[in-house]
Write a structure and sequence with these properties.
By secondary structure, the chain is an alpha/beta fold. The chain is built from ten helices and nine strands. The longest helix is centred in the C-terminal third of the chain and has 16 residues.
């Protein structure tokens, strides 16, 4: 939950027009149609049978697809994963001429789209009936990976979003939104015991649609950090600049009252946040 709150703060803090948009955090626990009744149920991920676990770090994925319905299929919505942080002004994106497209999303080198950042024209997405699609996933009628990769959408309705609006583990002078995608090195978790199945790491590295350049990056990250902590623990992020940006944004959010120190302490107690986060805040 802490990264989601930092994400929300960064969107407001880095915009000159924050009064022109509203931020809403979506929680799996607030979706009774998906939680908790699907725990342990089987579903398809790129034609492979998997088991749904509410505690898995990626179970927020389907929440991306409920937004048009929450908007009553009206207006625009910018959908972001909780591990994405603003560097540029998202108002610029919200004002974008979508040229008649229903969706703007980043296209990966392999050709598929990533729904982790989407600009949506909700009026054109009235076929996104979330409850029906959730039922279809657990009835093996809809592949979750295909759904999230927008494979069932008419490609003519999707426009390409520039990479800098979803910079995957990249933070440079052109970055507008940067996305910390590597689960093992997310900087708020360093040193904590891994709370997901490490066997998933291999499938994550080689997941469908993964481009060769992504694989090289993952391998380099793993070797640069692997020996710094015992096996089974979250690793240090290989790019100190990205870690520092997150910590600085958290400190700024605390100073402006958007996040309380008590909340951070509670997240530490739950082992959702690294034990030394206050030491890092003191150094920024």
């Amino acid at each position: 939950m802490l990264p989601a709150k930092v994400c929300a703060y960064s969107l407001e803090a880095r915009s000159k027009h924050s009064e022109a948009f509203e931020i809403r955090l979506l929680r799996l626990e607030e979706t009774p149609y998906l939680y908790p009744g699907r725990e342990g149920r089987r579903y398809l991920w790129d034609r492979r049978v998997c088991i749904w676990h509410n505690r898995d770090l990626q179970t927020f994925g389907p929440l991306r697809m409920m937004v048009p319905e929450l908007m009553n299929f009206q207006g625009r919505a910018l959908v972001l994963d909780p591990d994405i942080f603003a560097v540029g002004d998202v108002y610029e994106l919200l004002q974008r001429d979508m040229k008649g497209k229903a969706i703007l999303s980043r296209r990966r080198p392999s050709g598929f789209f990533t729904s982790s950042v989407m600009l949506l024209d909700c009026a054109q997405l009235k076929h996104w009936h979330w409850n029906q699609n959730i039922d279809a996933i657990f009835a093996f009628k809809l592949d979750l990976y295909h759904w999230l990769a927008l494979k069932s959408e008419n490609p003519d309705t999707i426009g390409v979003l520039e990479d800098e609006w979803n910079h995957l583990d990249v933070l440079n002078e052109s970055t507008k939104l940067f996305h910390l995608t590597e689960r093992l090195t997310q900087p708020w978790k360093t040193g904590l015991p891994v709370d997901f199945d490490l066997d998933q790491v291999g499938s994550y590295l080689y997941r469908p649609g993964f481009h060769a350049s992504d694989l090289v990056k993952r391998v380099k990250q793993s070797f640069s950090s692997w020996r710094m902590l015992p096996m089974g623990h979250y690793l240090p992020h290989p790019d100190l600049q990205q870690e520092n940006y997150f910590v600085a944004m958290l400190k700024e959010a605390i100073e402006h009252g958007a996040i309380s120190e008590q909340f951070v302490a509670e997240e530490i107690q739950r082992q959702y946040v690294r034990k030394d986060i206050f030491d890092l805040l003191a150094k920024v």
